[in-house]
């Protein structure tokens, strides 16, 4: 029936939106002991993959604009997890690198992904299947031209 097409529960965007919000809420209690927000957490994860990265590259990797990233990086720097350094070759470019404290934090954060799965009673295999499906969706979205409206 055509009227079912516009039901909220039939919208992929709504299911993704609500699931994302609810999962991020679950991270709060796991990250509070480290003084991290969810966005701070994913920033640290990105830096564990590639330390000494430009703000522009980091923003691209995390899908965050500079208006979101700049205050977040200031907070992480104040917490002693990162250092921001201007490039000697191009003063307009700022690079982010981990401090010793930031590197040591990784040992504690390694427990977070499993704790999150436990908090939602997810079997690791189900979590992996869901993650694979979401990666496929992201790949399709990246490869599909965006409509210009």
TrEMBL record:
A GO molecular-function annotation: DNA binding
GO-annotated cellular components: cytoplasm
Domain HTH marR-type: residue ranges: 9-139
Gene3D superfamilies named among the record's database cross-references: Winged helix-like DNA-binding domain superfamily/Winged helix DNA-binding domain
UniProt keyword Lipid biosynthesis, yes or no: no
InterPro entries, per database record: HTH_MarR-typ, Transc_reg_Sar_Rot_HTH, WH-like_DNA-bd_sf, WH_DNA-bd_sf
KW Ribosomal protein (keyword) present: no
Family: Belongs to the SarZ family.
Protein name: HTH-type transcriptional regulator SarZ
Taxonomic source organism: Acholeplasma brassicae
Lineage: Bacteria, Bacillati, Mycoplasmatota, Mollicutes, Acholeplasmatales
């Amino acid at each position: 029936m055509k009227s079912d097409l516009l039901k909220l529960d039939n919208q992929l965007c709504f299911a993704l939106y609500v699931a994302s919000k609810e999962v991020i809420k679950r991270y709060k209690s796991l990250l509070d002991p480290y003084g991290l927000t969810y966005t701070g957490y994913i920033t640290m994860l990105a830096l564990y993959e590639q330390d000494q990265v430009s703000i522009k590259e980091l923003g691209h990797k995390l899908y965050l604009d500079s208006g979101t990233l700049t205050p977040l990086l200031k907070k992480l720097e104040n917490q002693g997890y990162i250092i921001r350094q201007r490039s000697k070759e191009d003063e307009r470019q700022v690079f982010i690198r981990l401090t010793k404290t930031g590197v040591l934090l990784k040992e504690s954060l390694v427990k977070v992904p499993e704790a999150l799965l436990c908090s939602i009673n997810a079997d690791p295999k189900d979590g992996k299947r869901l993650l694979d499906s979401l990666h496929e969706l992201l790949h399709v979205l990246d490869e599909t031209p965006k409509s210009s409206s």
